């Protein structure tokens, strides 16, 4: 009877439709969380929560390898840990298009780090909202990377000067120089950007810390 029960339990687990995977770097904390879930309302949600111990990126890599497919398998992701920005690139291939990735951190600068990394690496995420969860009534935050106008004007002036100089150059040599300039432009990795972090007026929420919410978009190549 025990073997039959185990077989039935395994069959049920293999066919679950709603699964919450939770990871903790500490096995002690993971076991404590499992006891809490098992004790909540007679453990009604216990069978739908899988507890894991380890690193988020390592776990995702292991899951992708075990599943032997590049198809995304996560509907939504919530990261409540230090250095959440270190995992965003690894989460992307496992998160379904239109899925939500939420990051909770105690500092607004940590959310800004995520915004900057997504911009710099061109990760397929669209920022939807940043809110501060505090004890009182708090406003929504505006967090985004912008390129200062001085940098844009300087780049445009430099391009105009190069174009004017090219008018007096032999067409063949001019094409070669333009090709060389294009290669240098494409190879340029550092650009001057500034980060805006300020409370928004209007919408207010109640709630400790900062929550950034992004939506997974399709990659530029069209691949998930």
TrEMBL record:
This enzyme's EC code(s): 2.1.1.220
Source organism, top-level taxon: Eukaryota
One GO process term, biological-process aspect: tRNA methylation
Record keywords: Methyltransferase, Transferase
InterPro entries: SAM-dependent_MTases_sf (IPR029063), tRNA_MeTrfase_Gcd14 (IPR014816)
Gene Ontology molecular functions: tRNA (adenine(58)-N1)-methyltransferase activity
Membrane found in the keyword field: no
Annotated Gene3D superfamilies: Vaccinia Virus protein VP39
Annotated Gene Ontology cellular component terms: mitochondrion; tRNA (m1A) methyltransferase complex
Presence of the UniProt keyword Transferase in the record: yes
Annotated protein name in UniProt: tRNA (adenine(58)-N(1))-methyltransferase catalytic subunit TRM61
Species this protein is from: Ampelomyces quisqualis
């Amino acid at each position: 009877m025990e073997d039959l029960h185990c077989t039935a339990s395994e069959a049920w687990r293999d066919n679950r439709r709603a699964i919450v995977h939770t990871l903790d770097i500490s096995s002690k904390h993971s076991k404590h969380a499992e006891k809490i879930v098992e004790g909540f309302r007679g453990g009604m949600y216990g069978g739908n929560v899988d507890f894991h111990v380890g690193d988020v990126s390592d776990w995702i890599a292991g899951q992708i390898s075990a599943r032997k497919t590049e198809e995304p398998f996560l509907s939504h992701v919530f990261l409540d840990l230090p250095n959440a920005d270190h995992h965003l690139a690894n989460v992307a291939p496992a998160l379904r298009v239109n899925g939500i990735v939420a990051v909770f951190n105690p500092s607004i600068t940590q959310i800004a780090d995520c915004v900057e990394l997504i911009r710099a690496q061109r990760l397929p995420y669209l920022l939807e909202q940043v809110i501060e969860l505090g004890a009182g009534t708090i406003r929504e935050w505006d967090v985004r990377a912008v390129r200062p106008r001085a940098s844009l004007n300087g780049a445009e002036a430099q391009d105009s000067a190069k174009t004017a100089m090219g008018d007096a150059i032999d067409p063949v040599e001019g094409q070669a120089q333009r090709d060389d300039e294009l290669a240098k432009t494409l190879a340029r990795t550092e650009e001057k950007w500034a980060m805006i972090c300020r409370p928004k007026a209007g919408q207010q929420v109640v709630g400790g810390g900062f929550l950034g919410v992004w939506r997974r978009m399709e990659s530029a190549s069209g691949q998930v």
